[in-house]
Design goal:
Strands 3-4-6-8-7-9-10-13-14-15-16 form an eleven-stranded mixed beta sheet, with helices on both faces. Residues 1-40 have low confidence and may be disordered. Helix 2 crosses helix 16 (454-473), helix 11 (348-359) crosses helix 12 and helix 11 (348-359) runs parallel beside helix 13. By secondary structure, the chain is an alpha/beta fold. The protein folds into two domains: 4-13 and 328-521, Rossmann fold (3-Layer(aba) Sandwich), CATH 3.40.50; 31-322, 3-Layer(aba) Sandwich (Rossmann fold), CATH 3.40.50. The chain has helices at residues 4-23, 158-164, 176-180, 191-206, 224-234, 259-272, 279-285, 288-294, 311-317, 337-342, 348-359, 363-369, 378-388, 395-405, 440-443, 454-473, 509-512, 515-521; strands at 45-48, 51-54, 56-58, 61-68, 92-93, 120-126, 136-142, 167-171, 212-222, 244-248, 257-258, 301-302, 324-330, 411-416, 493-496, 505-507.
């Protein structure tokens, strides 16, 4: 499906709005825990490729934080591909997270930092497991944040690890210009993608030290993290680094910019920060605050060795890495972003104007399919249009990815539908719905909001079982849970909702989102 006007609309929308919305997906790094007892036989100390690390054991978990997986990307290494870690002397204190990557805070998420020494990861694993004999599945989480904000340590992986009996690794990767500035003079493109792959290689080398099986790795992520999962599926350089993938709320058939256009944008950006001449050296010596404040947006670029094809093209032509895929979105994705763009007081006339400006000659057909009197307010109506179609987050864009991927691999599709879930940003009162990111606290408790009520906790338990069983054997399941069908058509999408609101069941989300209508317009 393609609709150029809709794509251009969403591209404009996501530059400010996605950055603001996704900045809140991660919280300030927690305070450092108390120093553990001297290492003994309690599993607090393990040896990894750089040397021994000491973590903590508490509440049935072993947790190791702030382990370097690559050399600090500072000085001459700024913008370069990640370099190997130098072994350390003694035992590394891994009882507290290290710095997030350089980013600008906006009051709703991670604080501002200009620290570039940030290539660290965190490991959470059930306690009491033999370090080399357990063979647990390994799940590697790539955080969201519009490629501008976020960190791995903000995601509490304890429930996934204990209830699912898996090893969970959460990672940092370079953000903003440090990870996505693809200037031709720098000689490196897609540095953030290379960071993620360096972390996956670290997992291959060190999973067994934490009781994990390096041959059974699942990479998963949400929003920008989902886009990262899709990019790694398409990357030849990630082949063999993971066996399964879970992409949450970003379609794997959504296109990234080309390397040529990304490089052209990088030249404009470099001139704006005063680096029109002697560009590479100038960019490496410019202070990080200047670089961050001049940056607007950027993502992966298609055309280099790390990402030679668009993910959708790679899935279609069989050049993508052959991995099991779980893929899905939320029912009301754009009830976060449309209010951020238009405000909550959108009028009926403004609704009509937005549809006409976006869809041009097709506007009358869109207005007939989405009549204003069918919705509680104009902003809900407009949010519904773009939750159905017209963005990488939309239901129809995801159905397109399911249809494409299932031709060559095993696909399990879902849609999170709990409209009582706490929103990332409470913009619409009781009508926030199952907006973008609302599924995250069901996997990572306490990420935002007031916690889950008992009925939501049951849905959370089910989701954790589905996610971790998929990581274990490639088929999401759980004792007493509804069967999750392998995707073979739009009716095979598993709706995830409270029992009181329909429960967990297979549903034709393409029909509900009018995908046939949008396809005919396209």
């Amino acid at each position: 499906m393609s609709f150029p006007l809709a794509r251009r609309f969403f591209a404009r929308l996501t530059v400010p709005a996605l950055a603001l919305g996704m900045a809140a997906l991660t919280l300030a790094a927690p305070a450092a825990p108390a120093a553990p007892k001297p290492p003994g036989d309690d599993g607090t100390t393990v040896r990894v490729s750089g040397g021994p690390v000491r973590g903590t054991v508490e509440d049935g978990l072993r947790v190791f934080q702030g382990i370097p997986y690559a050399a600090p990307p500072v000085g001459d290494l700024r913008f370069e591909r990640p370099q190997p870690v130098k072994p350390w002397r003694g035992t590394l204190d891994a009882t507290a997270p290290r710095s997030q990557c350089a980013q600008l805070g906006n009051g709703t998420g991670n604080p501002t930092t200009f620290v570039e020494d940030c290539l660290y990861l965190n490991v959470t694993t059930p306690a009491g497991r033999s370090a080399r004999r357990a063979g647990l599945p390994v799940m590697v989480w790539i955080h969201g944040g519009s490629f501008l904000t976020g960190d791995g340590a903000s995601y509490d992986a304890g429930k996934l690890a204990t209830r699912g009996d898996v090893v969970v690794v959460t990672i940092n990767y370079r953000l903003g210009p440090f990870g996505f500035l693809n200037h031709p003079d720098l000689g490196t493109s897609n540095a953030a993608l290379l960071d993620q792959q360096a972390a996956l290689r670290w997992v291959q080398r060190n999973a067994r030290a934490f009781g994990g099986n390096p041959r059974n790795v699942t990479v998963f992520g949400e929003s920008a993290g989902s886009a990262s999962v899709c990019a790694n599926i398409a990357s030849p350089q990630a082949r063999g680094l993971f066996r399964r993938a879970i992409a949450q709320s970003y379609s794997c058939t959504a296109d990234f910019a080309t390397l040529a256009s990304s490089q052209a944008a990088a030249e404009t950006y470099s001139a704006a920060v005063g680096c029109a001449e002697d560009t590479a050296a100038c960019l490496r010596r410019t202070d990080p605050e200047t670089l961050l404040r001049a940056w607007t947006s950027g993502a992966f670029a298609v055309g280099g060795a790390a990402l030679p094809r668009q993910p959708g093209q790679a899935l279609a032509d069989g050049t993508a890495n052959r991995v099991d895929l779980m893929h899905g979105n939320t029912l009301d994705e754009n009830r976060l972003f449309i209010p951020l763009q238009y405000g909550t007081a959108l009028t009926a006339a403004q609704y009509v104007g937005a549809i006409r400006a976006t869809f041009g000659p097709a506007a009358d057909a869109v207005l007939a399919r989405y009549p204003l009197d069918a919705y509680a307010s104009p902003i809900i109506a407009l949010s519904t249009v773009f939750s159905d179609y017209g963005s990488p987050l939309s239901t129809c864009s995801h159905v397109d990815a399911y249809d494409t991927a299932q031709e060559r691999t095993r696909v399990y599709a879902y849609q999170f539908q709990d409209r009582t879930a706490d929103p990332l940003v409470p913009l619409l009162g009781t009508a926030n719905g199952a907006a973008h990111a609302t599924e995250l606290p069901y996997l990572f408790p306490g990420l935002f909001g007031d916690g889950l009520d008992p009925e939501q906790e049951k849905l959370s338990d089910a989701m954790v079982s589905y996610w971790t069983s998929f990581a274990r054997h490639g088929r999401p399941s759980g004792r007493g849970l509804p069967r999750w069908p392998e995707y073979d058509g739009a009716g095979d999408v598993l709706a995830l909702d409270l029992q009181s609101a329909g429960g967990i069941r297979a549903e034709d989300v393409a029909a509900a989102a009018n995908c046939s209508f949008w396809r005919q317009l396209g």
